[in-house]
Design brief:
6 strands, 82 residues
Length: 82
């Protein structure tokens, strides 16, 4: 994603239907959490404590429970570019 203020891919967030509960955590290359939320309406804007985070690859871990009881656990990476 590219949080540069152009309105395109400025926020990394989870979208979907039928999600009952979820948590997403995003980690930097040192294993530190740079973003965490349980609110489906919130996403990461590339800032940490109002400071622009460096370009690079970040790891996410997503745990969710769907309305039908299905449990989803995903992990992967995202690339932040400016």
């Amino acid at each position: 994603f590219s949080p540069n203020g152009d309105g395109i891919n400025d926020i990394f967030k989870i979208r979907g239907k039928g999600i009952k509960d979820f948590v997403i955590k995003i980690y930097n290359r040192w294993g530190q959490i740079v973003f965490e939320t349980m609110d489906i309406n919130k996403g990461w804007n590339g800032l940490i404590k109002d400071k622009k985070e460096n370009e690079g690859v970040y790891v996410y871990i997503l745990n969710a429970e769907m309305m039908n009881g299905q449990i989803i656990n995903k992990k992967g990476n995202i690339t932040l570019i400016r």
